[in-house]
Structure formats: structure tokens, C-alpha cells
Design goal:
about 140 residues; alpha+beta
């Protein structure tokens, strides 16, 4: 059985607790200060933990935002490169889709000429044989 007695020794209030096995003497003022200190300490620890977790959340959000910005930049540069490649391919397609008359007109305009009769040679060959040709300077006549 527990017996509690309150006493005042000088200017100090004391609580004496007899539990049957031992007697405890507790200074009431120190006990209230200790409880108050523990409450403040727990509140500070909780506040520090909340501020730590919130700052980690902000850092994580900022990090994910910067990663997304980098990915967005990479995707934009890839799109721009693909658009340039597409434009080049379309231009090449337009250039390569010339008709025979356009090619002939451009070639004759640039100086193409047909070989004269003495520049043309014909060869006779049998099936299964081959003809060896050696490059010789070609002179174009007018």
C-alpha cells in the first residue's frame, strides 16, 4: 500500500512516498520544474522533427522539379533536333524528286555535253565472257 505525505521543510515543499519497500522524498518545486522541462523538451523535439521533415519535403520537391526541368529541356532539344532533321529530309525529298526534263535542263545549263561519234565505241562479246575497259581521257566535241 502506498502512503503519501506532504511536508514543508524550511521554504521547500516535500512529498514523502512510502511504497512499502522503500521511501522516496520528492521536492515538489523541482518535480514541477522537471515536468515543465520535459514538456518543453518534447515540444521542441516535435517541432524540430516537423521542421526537419518539412525541409526534407521541400528539398525533395525542389529536386524533383529540377529533374523534371532537365528532362523537359532534353525533350525540347530532341524535338528541335527532330524538326531540323525532318526539314532537311523534306528538302532532300524535294530536291531528289526532280523530273527528267528538270535534271536535263540543269545539267545542260551547267555545261553537260553529249559525246561525239568518235567518242562512242561498241564492243562485241560472247555470253560468259567479259570485257576489260581501261579509262582513257574523253574529249567532248561540239
Amino acid at each position: 500500500m502506498k502512503a503519501v505525505s506532504d511536508y514543508i521543510i524550511g521554504s521547500t515543499a516535500v512529498k514523502i512516498i512510502d511504497t512499502g519497500r522503500r521511501i522516496r522524498v520528492i521536492d515538489v518545486k523541482k518535480q514541477t520544474e522537471k515536468k515543465h522541462f520535459i514538456k518543453i523538451s518534447v515540444a521542441v523535439i516535435i517541432a524540430a522533427a516537423l521542421s526537419l521533415f518539412s525541409s526534407l519535403g521541400v528539398v525533395r520537391y525542389s529536386n524533383s522539379e529540377s529533374i523534371l526541368n532537365k528532362k523537359n529541356y532534353i525533350l525540347k532539344t530532341q524535338i528541335e533536333r527532330l524538326q531540323r532533321d525532318n526539314d532537311c529530309m523534306l528538302k532532300n525529298l524535294e530536291e531528289n524528286s526532280l523530273s527528267y526534263s528538270e535534271i536535263f535542263d540543269r545539267a545542260t545549263h551547267m555545261g553537260m555535253r553529249f559525246p561525239s561519234g568518235k567518242n562512242i565505241r561498241t564492243y562485241k562479246y560472247k555470253k560468259g565472257s567479259c570485257i576489260r575497259m581501261h579509262a582513257a581521257p574523253i574529249e567532248y566535241g561540239e
